[in-house]
Amino acid sequence: MPADLLVRNARLVATMDADRRELIGGWVAITNGLVSSLGSSTDPEPEAGQTLDAADGLVTPGLINTHHHLWQNLTRAWPPMTSAPLFGWLQSLYPTWTANIDEESVHVAAWVGLAELALSGCTTSSDHHYLHPPRAGDLLAAEIAAASDLGMRFHPTYGSMSLSVKDGGLPPDDAVRDEEDILAESERHVARWHDASHGAMTRIALAPCSPFSVTPELMRRTAELAERLDVRLHTHLAENAEDDEYALATFGMRPVDLYEDVGWMTDRTWGAHVVRPDAAEVSRLGAAGVGIAHCPSSNMILSSGIAPVVDLRHAGCPVGLGCDGSSSADAASLWQEARLAMLQGKLRSGAGAMTARDALDVATRGGAGCLGRMGELGELSVGSVGDLAVWKLDGPAFAGVLDDPIEGWLRCGPTSAWHTVVAGVPVVREGALVSSRLDEMLAAHRRHARRFQPS
Ligand SMILES: [Zn+2]
């Protein structure tokens, strides 16, 4: 039986499989959404219904985004919020987000944000959607529809906020929901959308927002619910100094202690940022197998710090990449986050401590670990999902790259994906989005962004 798609004529296929095989002159065949065979130039290629020319470029598994807030691209580079650290930044944005968010704006923001990610070689994205004002409608359904229309693999989380200013939290009163309501909605969303099967396009995780916007009781009960439903757990963890100070003042403990206290110190969870753990906390996170969404752009823009990623990896944490919300990054390029992960790793831990291959490992296998899909996502091997990115290595930026296309890929650039393939279907082809709806969606996005950013 012929394959559905054959990607051929690569300079190198970086499989990122268990043996980290690199196939010179390689090809990848995809059938029924899964990798059906792959090989190097000396292996015979199969017949295929469709062929994609890798143009002598680098083929990698599709990159995985483990932390985002897609709707936040509606308030990008908005002057009132461009110079505060985390708490002030959030407080300047909560009112307009809460007043304006609805199904249509979330749908358009997710569509545009996922398109941007696809153009950067991303094939699977998570989304931490924690803002559900009661009047706003079914926002997860709105973003799942966007992912489905584009053909992106999607891990939205049912996020939550329950602790408002009047109860000692950070968000305004009309941004939060009742905790019984949150737990019921969490269960309803898992029942409606979560697909546990191999190769699933949609999976749901549960995601109370942060220690300063939910109660410890909600964290604890959400962990119990995730255990019962067998879904994953996500939240913000140890993001900056304000986060440390809030946890110490409010709970009498540091964020990692609180994480453990509410039953989250397990390999079912992945935390975003994790900039501030001390050495003992790094060891505890590693021993528990807690996943880490490393968000280097956001951590720099909000001046949060440089996360100890090399130490966390050595300790045993799966570390993936996150572009974080588009009001604090503000770009959503997984290639760029991978490059910054490499640069920050070298800066913090030594020039040899984070190579381009290490950063590619974080961008692919590490992300699969965070999402609980090792062996299925983040690698190219027979039976893994047919998600890949093709990167052209030509033009002035790559002149002089001769012997190591993987180091060249991340040291040079900036670059976007030449092709992005999800489940064997091109979402980006020859550097352009396959969908014909981009102009229409960008126009709609502009209208909604103006509502969110009153002039
Ligand atoms: Zn975040």
Keywords:
single chain; 455 residues; alpha/beta; Urease, subunit C, domain 1; TIM Barrel; 2 domains; 8-stranded parallel sheet; 14 helices; 19 strands; binds zinc ion
Description:
This protein has 455 residues and is α/β, with parallel strands linked by helices. It folds into two domains: 3-62 and 380-433, Urease, subunit C, domain 1 (Roll); 63-370, Alpha-Beta Barrel (TIM Barrel). Helix content is 37%, strand content 20%. The protein has 14 helices and 19 strands. The chain has helices spanning 86-100, 103-119, 139-150, 179-193, 216-229, 241-251, 255-261, 279-288, 296-301, 309-315, 334-349, 356-370, 405-411, 438-452; strands spanning 3-8, 12-14, 22-24, 27-31, 34-39, 48-53, 58-61, 63-65, 122-129, 153-160, 205-208, 232-237, 269-273, 291-294, 319-321, 388-391, 419-422, 425-429, 432-433. The strands form three sheets. Strands 8-9-10-11-12-13-14-15 form an eight-stranded parallel beta sheet. A seven-stranded mixed beta sheet has the order 3-2-7-16-17-18-19, covered by helices on one side. Strands 5-4-1-6 form a four-stranded mixed beta sheet, with no helix packed on it. A hairpin with a 2-residue loop joins strand 17 (419-422) and strand 18 (425-429). Helix 2 packs parallel to helix 3 (139-150), helix 2 (103-119) packs across helix 14 and helix 8 (279-288) packs across helix 10 (309-315). The longest helix has 17 residues, at 103-119. 54% of the residues are buried. The mean pLDDT is 96. Zinc ion (ZN) is lined by residues 67, 69, 128, 236, 272, 324-325. Residues 67, 69, 128, 236, 272, 324-325 line the site of zinc ion (ZN).
